[in-house]
Amino acid sequence: MTDIPIELPPRSPRQAEILSAARRRVEAEGWDALSMRTLAADLGIRAPSLYKHLPNKDAVRTQLLIDAFAQMGRACWQVIEDGAAVPALLRAYRATAAKSPELYRLATRGSLDRAALPDGLEEWSGQPFFLITGDPATAQALWAAAHGLTILQLDGRLPPGSDMDAAWGALAEAFA
């Protein structure tokens, strides 16, 4: 199931190149640093050329959100396929967020235009939490706790010297 069972919109090679540059910019400087002008400059082209491939910054955001949900979903589904339990799911979630922290932030902060995403992608990416807990409310609580700890860790908001492995272990134990 690590293969996405939802049909994702096809991307041309040029769209893939543009989105790769956008992702590099977002990971380096955050979403707010991205504009169509800076993206065009990164690619060595003029901004109007981008509009032939992606109509606006919102379209770039949607495509990056698709990538974020796919990346997290694949990592979490791999845990399910391996027959592992809550600790492994949390390790996969934490590692995936740490690998692409700005993409993670983009996908998890603010409102989400679900209508812009491919049908079923968000549900597919979160389904491992349900499968591992067996209950929708517990799955949401586990995801919320994992997200909270992830953001606190990414933002360096926990007290200096905090044992992050112990905190993640306690979270896993609480939901095991």
Automatic annotation (TrEMBL):
Keywords: DNA-binding. It holds the Pfam family TetR_N. Residues 35-54 bind DNA. Residues 12-72 form the HTH tetR-type domain. It comes from the Bacteria. Transmembrane segments: none annotated. PROSITE patterns: HTH_TETR_2. InterPro entries: Homeodomain-like_sf (IPR009057), HTH-type_TetR-like_transc_reg (IPR050109), HTH_TetR (IPR001647), Tet_transcr_reg_TetR-rel_C_sf (IPR036271). This is TetR/AcrR family transcriptional regulator.
